[in-house]
Amino acid sequence: xxxxxxxxxxxxxxxxxxxxxxxxxxxxxxxxxxxxxxxxxxxxxxxxxxxxxxxxxxxxxxxxxxxxxxxxxxxxxxxxxxxxxxxxxxxxxxxxxxxxxxxxxxxxxxxxxxxxxxxxxxxxxxxxxxxxxxxxxxxxxxxxxxxxxxxxxxxxxxxxxxxxxxx
Length: 167
What we know:
Structural class: mainly alpha
Distance between the termini: 110 Å
Radius of gyration: 37 Å
Strand content: 5-15%
Number of helices: 4
């Protein structure tokens, strides 16, 4: 809303929470609406702000109205454990079928992304091992060169010692 506009022209704001736990154990509900109310007289402040909660653990408590709007089917979609469950839901409802096709596509995209990440991780680890191997080979070559240098120095020292004892 802009400054000076009448509050009655405000659009409704709805927050939808989809949860896999029961908010109030003493009063379980599948779908519930919450409004801001005056604590003393229980008057609702406004119907333009509402919290809606869909409890996926309470599908069996769906009312006729919940079923009329298909909330139970959407909850079944969100809780489906197998591709067979999704297939059964797709047969029942064209809108759900469209959503399931999208889920399958997104899942495939995710699989491809994971495969690409695994490949890049493999290359990174392989590169790291090869670099370590190169470093190890360089260290070995350096150690061999140092040993040869020490041998040469030892040979020179032995020659000087032989020369000194011969005199």
